[in-house]
Amino acid sequence: MKIGIFTDTYTPEINGVATSCNTLFNTLIKNGHEVYVFTTGKKTEIDETKHIIKISGKTIKRLYNYRLALPFNHKVLKEISKLNLDIIHVNTEYGVGILGFLTSKKYRIPLVYTFHTMYEYYTYYITKGFLDGLFKKLVRRLIIKYVNRASEVIAPSENTKNYLQSIKCKKYINVVPTGIDLTKFLDYKIDDEKLRNLRKTLQIPEDFKIFVSLGRIAKEKNLKETIHYFDNFIKKHNIKAKLLIVGDGPYLSELKKEVKKDDENDNVLFLGRVEHQDVGLYYHLGDLFINSSLSETQGLTYLEAIASNNIVLARNAPYLKNIIIDGESGFLYDNEEDFDNKLLMFLSLDKNKLDKIKENALKNINFYNIDNFYKKIMIVYNRAIKDLY
């Protein structure tokens, strides 16, 4: 098949949608398909060797430097007309996504639409609280419009499927979790000397536990709760521990200010952005991976942490049901009291029990293997072609 992937964000940008689209591209190429990526860039350029078509886009700083492209680009439209695509796969609702829908209609090409992002968690970046309820309603109407115009619709989790159904999307929704190549985390060569040196650099004593939260620093990730609960926990129980916040994002400076207000809080360390090849090092440095987010559609960092032989403590959410069974393959919490109890439970377990939890979690992440992903994607693509013809 000839397939066009339309997305506003793509690697080397670091976010869930960019990673998902890159995985889709590589998986389809590996299985013999001819694939083209349409995405944003500083200027319009066509790289025929890499099959990447970039469309000039404007950076929106208040929306964590999201780049928005105008869909009417004659140079790109001319390129599309030459490709004779069999499938258009849209992964965004704006800019490049609109181009995908227009192209599908003009050339009568089956269109698959993946709903990646729970936009209602992000509207405050635009509204700053002013008429936010109205803006959320407009977002819902737009999503319904996209769903109804697509040949087939994909949700990456039951959680996102339930959301689409809750806002009255009537179309059949295929649940296809993004396949994740976790090889680099599963096969990560642990360098004990590097780990010791990193601990020394961070000035963390040997008898301290290390909890890690890693990912994009944004308000919807609920890191304020993570820090608050962690700080209360170590003070209440007199636990020797440090919380490492690894990553960068639009909420970082505000989060630092919150921690700075508490002069006694020196147990939270902000490490900022780390190089992608070093991410595995930080997962292995930690004794426990903590994430309080409620905005995920799939939760890639949870899977990376598990593949890195780490144990996860996470806010209870529907998208985790295939990954974490509380107490068996990780820990889930609903409130601060629950957070405390699960941390105390984790700290009380011996090595054998901790190893069993890790083993169970590794079995669960097999659900997201690349082969399963490819088979499900092809079922959707073939159905989209039948829908149109």
UniProtKB/TrEMBL annotation:
Name residues in a coiled coil: none
Where is the Glycosyl transferase family domain positioned along the sequence?
A: 197-362
Instruction: Report the superkingdom from the record.
Output: Bacteria
Q: Which InterPro entries did the record assign?
A: Glyco_trans_1, Glyco_trans_4-like_N, Glycosyltransferase_grp1
Q: Which GO terms describe its molecular function?
A: hexosyltransferase activity
PANTHER family xrefs:
SULFOQUINOVOSYL TRANSFERASE SQD2 (PTHR45947:SF3)
Under what name is this protein listed? Glycosyltransferase
Q: Organism source for this protein?
A: Candidatus Onthovivens merdipullorum
